[in-house]
């Protein structure tokens, strides 16, 4: 259990608990790989050192424009199916031997090559 720094304090440093988890894990991995600590401490566990550094604002993050655009660009499943149909791809509902067999979990039979 994490007592210090408190999770509430750490959550004020980031926008979500997932960002906090990734940030702490990446910093802990850096410490394990031999990168220097940003502050002197008696702690020996890399994750504890990483959370201390986050709490003391020694580590921060910045969202890239591409990650924000990716979150906004998520299309619903119907749009995905429409895009496939426009490209000429068959879906399992439309039929076709290969797609119907794949939908049932069976391997499509390979047709013999003509020579």
Map the helices and strands:
Blueprint: H1 7-11, H2 17-32, H3 46-55, H4 65-72, H5 77-86, H6 97-103
Helix pairs in contact: 2-3
Q: What is the gist of this entry?
A:
It is built from 6 helices and no strands. The chain is an all-alpha fold.
Can you characterise this structure?
The protein is mainly alpha-helical and 115 residues long. The protein has a domain of 49 residues. Helices cover 49% and strands 0% of the residues. The chain contains 6 helices and no strands. The protein starts with 6 loop residues before the first helix and ends in a 12-residue tail after the last helix. The relative contact order is 0.09.
SSE class: mainly alpha
Oligomeric nature of the chains: single chain
H/E order of the elements? HHHHHH
What proportion of the residues is helical, as a percent range? 40-55%
Q: Which parts are unreliable, with pLDDT below 50 for 5 consecutive residues or more?
A: none
